[in-house]
Amino acid sequence: MTKRSFFATFFSAAALLALTAGALRTQPAATLPKQSFGKTSDGREVYLYTLKNSSGMEVTITNYGGTITQIKVPDRHGKFDDVVLGFENLDGYTQKANTAYFGATIGRYGNRLAHGTFTLDGHVYHIPTNDGPNTLHGGTTGFNKRVWDAKDVSTPGRPALELHYLSPDGEQGFPGNLNVTVRFSLAANNDLRIDYRATTDKDTVLNLTNHSYFNLAGAGSESILNDKVTIAADRMTPVNSTLIPTGEIQSVAGTPFDFRKATAVGARINENNQQLKYARGYDDNWVLNHPAGTMALAAKVEEPNSGRVLEVLTDQPGLQFYTGNFLDGSVTGIGGVYRHRSALCLETQHFPDSPNHSNFPTTELRPGQTFHSTTIYRFSTE
Ligand code: GLA
């Protein structure tokens, strides 16, 4: 490099630094708005935190259950609507009738464990069953019913909330003290990013996800059957009548589970197909095509009327696509009555019942290892 170009590079780098510093100064890390969300039955106060970006998108999260209660995004005309199912009050989340896990952080083990049992290092563990003969979403008191510690970890231009929960050794029958953090952050381009991190002091298993129910036409709208869905998966894991994987990994080709090309949810949902019948619609795990551990587009949802688009990116190997088959109009939330198939879930995770299937990617975590995983819910319009 000549002396002259060295100085030119040096000064332009310095100018860039000064400019960046200036930009940072004018955009301070805002404090997240926080408001009381009520008290749990054991008297613990929980809060609502709102992440708002420069485009006006808002995500509201409560530290009760690590739950996303609202996501407000614009349609193609700039009109904002809440696109996830949720409740106005804490009571909505704690009431018995709510068995839907709206917006919650799910753990320790997302989806089902057959007969509530698994073997690890030669020990048989028993987890309470809460879904017929099986355990669903971590047992009778999963992470969705715990109070998490909350910390505002916003940085300039990026509001962020970090939740922490220490799940004690033996909780719901799972081994090891499990330290879990879930960080929600909102970027200016309407990416809602969720980073999971966990460590343990004994060999254990875990499967973490978020259970948001999306209706891109606005929560409370009639149905998601016209939404067009794409899933980047050539294969899925079929289930038995209690929705436990049989262990097979099956091609989606020629079945109603082929979403490799954008297809309306309702186009094949009522077909005479055993898998669809077992779950009363879609409620299955797709085996994502991307190589393990790399971030990639897993799914896309396009809602034709509003023009809203949701893309889901993840480093997880599986995606549970669930079409709200168990919603039956018996609960009312912020958006109104939540009817059968009026929302869909895209739960990025490991495969259901993995501890009982040695051919599935492992869900084991050992002391000294750190579990990391990221999912991005990316909102746009078309
Ligand atoms: C998951 C399960 C479904 C259902 C919902 C919550 O998606 O796979 O079967 O339990 O959670 O109701």
Oligomer: single chain
DSSP, total strands: 29
Bound molecules: alpha-D-galactopyranose
Strand arrangement, major sheet: 11-12-13-14-29-23-22-17-20
Q: How much beta, percentage-wise?
A: 35-45%
Gap between N and C termini:
47 Å
Q: How confident is the prediction overall: mean pLDDT?
A: 94
Question: Which structural class do you get from the secondary structure elements?
Answer: mainly beta
Quick one: biggest sheet? Answer: 9 strands, antiparallel
Gross morphology is globular
Whole-angstrom Rg: 22 Å
List keywords for this structure.
9-stranded antiparallel β-sheet, 382 residues, 5-stranded antiparallel β-sheet, binds alpha-D-galactopyranose
In short:
The protein has 382 residues and is mainly beta.
Structural summary, described in words:
The structure is a single chain. 9% of the residues lie in helices and 36% in strands. The longest helix is centred in the first third of the chain and has 24 residues, at 3-26. It contains 3 helices and 29 strands. The strands form 8 sheets. The chain has a 9-stranded antiparallel sheet with strand order 11-12-13-14-29-23-22-17-20, with no helix packed on it. Residues 6-11 and 13-26 have low confidence and may be disordered. The protein is mainly beta. It is globular, with a radius of gyration of 22 Å. It has helices at residues 3-26, 90-94, 274-279; strands spanning 34-39, 45-52, 58-62, 67-74, 80-82, 105-106, 112-113, 117-120, 123-126, 135-136, 149-152, 160-167, 178-186, 191-200, 204-205, 209-210, 228-231, 233-237, 250-251, 263-264, 283-288, 296-302, 308-314, 318-322, 332-333, 336-337, 345-349, 364-365, 371-381. The structure holds alpha-D-galactopyranose. Alpha-D-galactopyranose is lined by residues 100-101, 111, 136, 243, 283, 320, 322, 326, 345.
